[in-house]
Amino acid sequence: MNFDFSDDQKQLRDQARKFLAEKCSPKAVRVVLDGKAPYDRELWKGLAEMGFLGVAIPEEFGGAGAGHLELCVIAEEMGRANAPVPFSSTVYLAAEALLIAGSEAQKKKWLPAIASGEAIGTLALFEGKGNPAPKNVNLTAANGLLNGVKKPVADGAIADFAVVAARTGSSGRDSDVSLFLVDLKAGGVEVKSLTNLDPTRGQAEIIFKDAKAEPLGAAGEGWSILTQVLDRAAVLCAFEQVGGSDRALEMGRDYALDRIAFGRQIGSFQAVKHMLADMYVSATLARSNSYYGAWALSTNAAELPEAAAAARISATQAFQHCAKNNIQVHGGMGFTWEFDCHMYYRRANAMALGLGSLTYWEDQLIDRMRKKNAA
Amino acid sequence: MNFDDTPQEAEFRATARAWIGANAPKQYEEELRKSSLGRTVLKNANILEVAKAWQKKKADAGWACLHWPREYGGRGSSPIERVIWSQEEGPFGQLSRMFIIGHGMCGPTMMAFAREEHKRTYLPPLASGEKVWCQLFSEPAGGSDVAGLRTRAEKDGDDWVINGQKIWTSGAHYSDYGILLTRTDPTVPKHKGLTMFFLDMKSPGVEVRPIKQASGASDFNEVYFTNVRIPDHQRLGEVGDGWNVSLTTLMNERSAIGAAVSTGFPELFEYCSSLMLDDGPAIEDRAVRSKLANWAVKASGLKYTSMRAISALSKGERPGPENSIGKLVAGSMIQDVATYALDLQGANGVVSGEDGELAGRFQAMLLRAPGTRVEGGTDEIMRNIIAERVLGLPGDIRVDKDVPFNKIPTKGRN
Predict the structure, then answer these.
(1) A366 with B3: Cβ contact below 8 A
(2) ipTM surpasses 0.90
(3) If 0-12 CB within 10 Å is exposed, 13-18 middle and 19+ buried, where does residue A45 land?
(4) Catalytic one among B253, B267, B322, B388?
(5) Which end of chain B is more exposed for a tag (fewer CB within 10 A), N or C?
(6) How far apart are CA B393 and CA B49, in angstroms?
(7) Is B377 left (phi over 0), alpha (psi -120 to 50) or beta?
(8) Torsional sign, CA B142, B144, B146, B148
């Protein structure tokens, strides 16, 4: 049994960590946090040069042709660094949708552009409040033209193209939904930035008015493709969340060692020690669930739907838990803009919603476990 | 990343599986499979006898205490082979419970500190289950603070004379031998005045009294020592070095890798899958699903944490510290799971035993659960261990560290 990453993959993780420590310091993250730039362009360029953007994209489409395990270790480091770039939208959502359902021409057009950092992509699924569900898709598609409003769309304001979920039927079944590819620079699209919990990753409203679109995948297959995309993204996001959890835990631990109160290191008080121990427990459970998700993703196992939902729930909980208690360990300083704690708190809570909230994934997990038991 | 055995592991697994298939007491398999925390019973057999017979059979065929050296009754197996064996032994592993302390703690301590002739005499019958051992550490005055123990050992000629009381001794009532931590010098700070021995539990002056637990059952005992004589050659380690010797024992207690910890989740999921509530199936109820999902990811998180440790063993590496979370997570989880199962039963949840739902399975679990959060290190001690050894946080401030033991206060208030 080798339920672990290989030495090469661990080396890649170290390489990514080193690169991000240098190019994505908290100071760099703050440029985006403070609204001085929509995302870190230099970092994005650097990620492309390192081959990280296309690590799971096949060589024939301009990628490194490695695999999802390699992408998982990079994702972990992106989360640890709180990187202010459209990595998850472009790489986990748009690129994965193309890999699953794209035509040869679509892949040729967009995947090399993703790998080289020239194109930012995203998934436009949500239409206001509510979790992923076919009935919540109301944007219409007719004669290759889309009409309707999507919000929130992660990185929508900086994206070059979007995978858009549209209603193409009214049977009340999953097959009412189809996917489309839209070049957001080609007109018929109005984009509005939205303020959001985590300014280091933008959210937008996109209004489609007779926007030209081409089908992605077969008509009526949209929901089935989306489900696969969301499962893959759930595992990859879980690794970002695991990286973020670990970093928040480290920050709390370091502060507890440095800070003196009542004449002692605050980390010598059991109330603080036990809080940090519980954070370690959450982070460890999340890491182990995520490893299982990585295994299922990389082998395209039948267990992926269940493993993805478990990784998603566990990692979401861990990141939220570690981020909020990191602030608590820091006390008043943790609640200042100046300290970095709130960046992880913001990211943790934004990520908890991005692919659908915990309520949704809890439901998915139980459905999938029942299905497995019935089989 | 994969879950596959190496060719060598696969071969070992096949051999183990074949032997278990041909030799395990299959007539008890169903009952053992259905056992859960607070309830491991065989209706028509004495479980101690069945356990001893299975252990002896394993020992005769070379399948007992796999990781021990052959000359002491083991198989000389690698850590990963031990894990594979326990995976294959499956429900029959439940029968090893009465030997866990002896095999997991007393044996390794004897191996590290006993004289060679004692090892050759005492270890093989311990491995084969013919002799059962217990561990006599905890006392009324020393639980989590075990170094606060007061049982005295005083030198008299070539013997030591023991007087005092132990508590929470698992299985003392059916044990043949025990390892015993005593105080030999009360005038020095507490960790420095301790000495370890092993003794025959049938020695004159040893009295075992079962404790009736909060659950009503009796798995543990009080053990009283009145002028019990132990020859000096049964001392383990140097006089005054008992604390270090006990650390060897306790390290082994907490390092059982791959041992399945009971969370109660499989039982609860199975229960909810068929349970009907007032307004429909439990498994379709929003609130029930949310609870189940949250426990599901804890249970799977523990399972895959253990897989990561096993992978390290498979590669010949030492597992990381992540395994230390198992007991802490499972202990409070099984208590919460049991509480929730009863909640789903409504007023009838109060009925326990054979008259209760599922013959009182979750009621028994609820009543036994508080013990799991205390035994083998309380939740609080486990959190301290994680905080100090894994995260590197400072140890607790110990006000009694440099105080002679006999000057430490013994009462909280008057």
Answers:
(1) no
(2) yes
(3) middle
(4) B253
(5) C
(6) 47
(7) left
(8) negative
